[in-house]
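In the design runs reported in the main text, the only information available to the sequence generator was the tokenized backbone. The following block is the verbatim input for one such run; it is reproduced so that readers can re-run the procedure and compare outputs position by position.
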């Protein structure tokens, strides 16, 4: 019995050391800036956020205190996250993304949307005015460009 306890404790200590000595210094941040392949960007985003339709393109900047689905080796604890992403979808699927949300006219704009496009601005031509949505009780805001099928979404929690 003491052999099993020693083995179990050894495994726990090893996991603790591994989680503290991660070789990836940015394991809590995931960005699409250096990912040139569109399919790869889409697949990564689909692993990390709830997706309501097929994506045609995606850019993202995600921060999660627990790391991401392909990086976790320990049980996640309390989470703090800050997600920003832009997606291109079929215009017929926009209602799937806005369901349960409330259109609003009071919001503040900063430059987070421009920062998402730093690598491939030419892929995201916008000429319409967005509708803005929030979800009551949640920290989320979406800027929806209906004509282009483009949605910017920001969500956060502490």
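Verbatim output:
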């Amino acid at each position: 019995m003491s052999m099993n306890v020693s083995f179990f404790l050894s495994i726990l200590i090893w996991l603790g050391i591994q989680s503290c000595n991660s070789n990836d210094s940015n394991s809590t941040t995931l960005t699409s800036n250096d990912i040139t392949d569109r399919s790869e960007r889409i697949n990564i985003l689909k692993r990390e956020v709830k997706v309501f339709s097929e994506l045609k393109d995606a850019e993202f900047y995600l921060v999660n205190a627990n790391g991401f689905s392909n990086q976790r080796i320990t049980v996640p604890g309390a989470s703090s996250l800050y997600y920003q992403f832009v997606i291109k979808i079929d215009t017929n699927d926009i209602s799937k993304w806005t369901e349960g949300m409330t259109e609003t006219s009071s919001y503040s704009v900063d430059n987070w949307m421009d920062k998402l496009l730093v690598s491939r601005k030419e892929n995201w031509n916008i000429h319409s005015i967005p509708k803005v949505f929030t979800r009551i009780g949640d920290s989320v805001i979406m800027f929806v460009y209906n004509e282009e099928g483009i949605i910017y979404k920001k969500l956060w929690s502490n």
